[in-house]
Amino acid sequence: MFKRLITLASALLLAACASYPPPGGSSASSPVRYQPTRFADLPGWDAPLAGESLAALRASCRSLQGKPQWQGACSAAAAVDAANPQAVRAFYEQRFMPWQLSESGKDSGLITGYYEPLLAGSRSKSAQTPYPVYGVPADLFVLDISAEQRAQPQLVARRGSGNRLQLVAGKSVAGPGEIQITLADFITDSRTRALKGRLDGNRLLPYYTRADIDAGKGVASMPVLAWAEDETELFFLQVQGSGRIQLEDGSFIRVGYADQNGHGYKSIGRWLVDQGQMRLEDVSMQSIKAWIAANPQRRAELFAANPSYVFFKQLPANDSGPLGAMGVPLTGGYSVAVDPRYIPLGSPLYLATTWPLDGTPQPLNRLVHAQDTGGAIRGGVRADFFFGFGAEAGMYAGRMKQSGKLWLLLPKGMTPAANP
């Protein structure tokens, strides 16, 4: 045993001299790095680990257990006593290796928060509930494209099943029954994996913006899942990506993200700052809502600054959390949204940040799990902390704008550069 510990310590010492590029990336093209470290170096690691962190990993394992490098850790997680903090800590230390993330030489980044809101609404439109919660439009078409295809000025597609389009390889001019796509019509970047648009004759054009939809364009093709009382709360439901709607009889409808109109997310908080309406340090969900209440005549102008529009689907009504990008329920206080280019979905993360409270900063050090994504979550040292459901969760989430550090936990023997 003693000899084995010496060997392991030597291996860790050698590993600590190296850093790794992001998954699938190269050291020359990305500013994100992964530095192997020790659990003892994680702030607050010696505090009791809550059983919820293990429950979140078990949820992730529903998707991860089919991957060879995760099978051992997922199988072992099923046998750990979640009520025993020492057993939970020992499991992670025995099965995982922590890697500290840094970006452009900085090991701290922005940690924000989100939650599952509660809206008042109805199944039918009325003077009290005039704002529609839309499902996916029938005229929204999606074409998956690769990085190479994003560089081509003209593409040709044909209709597939449902709302999917299929690329016609080797063609740049559409023939009969085919669809012409001019890439210059669309705004794309390195994260663009799909074009979303509408058909105009044999051309694919960008889908309607938020301002267009609010003006009534395309709404005839959009199913209405429910009607909401408050337009501002409906906007923030779209920002959060999921929520519950309480009907007149006290029952609930749960809705979750189904699709999006293809336009990039733009922060309305940033718009208020740029317009001289608010200081950057004062921006929060609460301050934005207060500004809207004081300036109702400018609400439409403010919302139009974010052209992105989210469409929902109805989810089963249950007491578990909303579904994240992995398709598993999120755990309040133990799930985060990340940029999957740098942090593989399902991975445990150790987060070191502070609570969004006035006064002396209070540490928020916690083992969380990367189970969701978001349009505004970009970068390697970047996370959106899921606070859970309800008003208290919304209070914390709306004010969360902290600096924090992240450590990626991977099964021993697996390096970030080898992530599938």
Q: Care to give the gist of this entry?
A:
This is peptidoglycan lytic exotransglycosylase. 24% of the residues lie in helices and 29% in strands.
How many domains? The number is 3
Please report the distance between the alpha carbons of the first and last residues: 33 Å
The averaged pLDDT comes out at: 88
Radius of gyration: 23 Å
Instruction: From the 3D structure, determine the CATH topology of the largest domain.
Output: Barwin-like endoglucanases
Give me the count of strands.
Answer: 20
The CATH architecture term of the largest domain is Beta Barrel
Topology:
Elements: H1 2-15, E1 32-36, H2 51-64, H3 68-77, H4 85-95, E2 96-103, E3 109-116, E4 118-122, E5 131-134, E6 141-144, H5 147-150, E7 154-159, E8 164-167, E9 179-182, E10 194-200, E11 203-206, H6 210-214, E12 224-228, H7 231-240, E13 242-246, E14 252-260, H8 268-274, H9 285-294, H10 299-304, E15 310-315, E16 335-337, E17 348-354, E18 363-372, E19 383-389, H11 391-399, E20 401-411
Parallel strand pairs: 3-19, 4-13, 6-8, 16-18
Antiparallel strand pairs: 1-2, 2-20, 3-20, 4-12, 5-12, 6-10, 7-8, 7-9, 10-11, 13-14, 14-15, 16-19, 17-18, 17-20
Question: If you had to describe this structure to a student in words, what would you say it looks like?
Answer:
It is an enzyme of class 4 (lyase). The chain has 420 residues and is of the alpha+beta class. The protein has 3 domains: 192 residues, Barwin-like endoglucanases (Beta Barrel); 110 residues, Ribosomal Protein L25, Chain P; 66 residues, no CATH class. The protein is built from 11 helices and 20 strands. It has a 6-stranded mixed β-barrel with strand order 3-19-16-18-17-20. It has a 6-stranded mixed sheet with strand order 5-12-4-13-14-15, with helices on one face. It has a 6-stranded mixed sheet with strand order 9-7-8-6-10-11, with no helix packed on it. It is globular, with a radius of gyration of 23 Å. The two termini are 33 Å apart. The relative contact order is 0.19. The N terminus is likely disordered.
